[in-house]
Amino acid sequence: MSASDKLRLGVNIDHVATVRNARGGDYPDPLRAAKLAEEAGADGITAHLREDRRHISDADIEGLIDMLTVPLNFEMAATEEMQQIALRHKPHAVCIVPEKREEKTTEGGLEVAREENRLAHFIAPLREAGSRVSIFIAADQRQIDAAHRIGAQVIELHSGAYCDAYAEGRFNEADIELEKMREMSAYAHSLGLEVHVGHGLTYDTVSPVAAFPEVRELNIGHFLIGEAIFLGLKPAIREMRRLMDEARA
Ligand SMILES: CC(=O)[C@@H](O)[C@H](O)COP(=O)(O)O
Ligand SMILES: NCC(=O)COP(=O)(O)O
């Protein structure tokens, strides 16, 4: 396996900030988590600067930009404020995600097809600034075609429907969702898009997704931060890495 074939693990540190923000102080520090994740072998760090700043803050993003030795995948909504922040920091990757104030977490993928024109104009300066532009979407051919047309280099398939179905014991539905992601990974790859997958992945759900040959990166956060309470962050990440490597072998 060449280095370019390696399945990368992006560790999302948002929920270290959620715990910090519960008390409004300085700890636990998401930057310290990012450092440990790097040391544990993370290939990248993902952080979502929500418009309501419910977890990651502007200062966290600045700190990550200064400190990281691995690429930052900066998740953000397609708003002018976020575009300005991304253009100031020029992260390795910008992943455009949908956001709703009332949601607990990112509920679905971005509606690219309905907003093609606006999104094409929105991502052009980000690409020109040197960031790789990724679009967080459902495993839906219409959305993939639209992401391709607007000039995104990467798509990230939302694995939440698969993971939720699995967690709730709806295994037939989980298989259907998995099959959709498998087919759409191959389809997106055939168009020349780089394929990532993320949201809600756990030790129980990661292996079949890691086995898709077209997938280049998994972004995983909430489960790892939870598991770190019991195992420690580095062992939790290393176990995820082991499962990914085993599935890919
Ligand atoms: C877009 C995405 O899937 C991640 O950002 C993840 O959801 C963590 O952030 P939230 O839990 O706030 O959605
Ligand atoms: N884009 C998905 C991500 O970064 C991680 O999502 P989760 O594992 O925190 O649900």
From TrEMBL:
The record marks 156 as: Transition state stabilizer. It catalyses: 3-amino-2-oxopropyl phosphate + 1-deoxy-D-xylulose 5-phosphate = pyridoxine 5'-phosphate + phosphate + 2 H2O + H(+). It is found in: Cytoplasm. 1-deoxy-D-xylulose 5-phosphate binds at residues 14-15, 50, 55, 105. Pfam families: PdxJ. The active site is at 48 (proton acceptor), 75 (proton acceptor), 199 (proton donor). GO terms for molecular function: pyridoxine 5'-phosphate synthase activity. The keyword Cytoplasm applies. Transmembrane segments: none annotated. Homooctamer; tetramer of dimers. PANTHER family: PYRIDOXINE 5'-PHOSPHATE SYNTHASE. Catalyzes the complicated ring closure reaction between the two acyclic compounds 1-deoxy-D-xylulose-5-phosphate (DXP) and 3-amino-2-oxopropyl phosphate (1-amino-acetone-3-phosphate or AAP) to form pyridoxine 5'-phosphate (PNP) and inorganic phosphate. HAMAP family: PdxJ (MF_00279). This is Pyridoxine 5'-phosphate synthase. It comes from Sulfitobacter sediminis. The lineage of its organism: Bacteria, Pseudomonadati, Pseudomonadota, Alphaproteobacteria, Rhodobacterales.
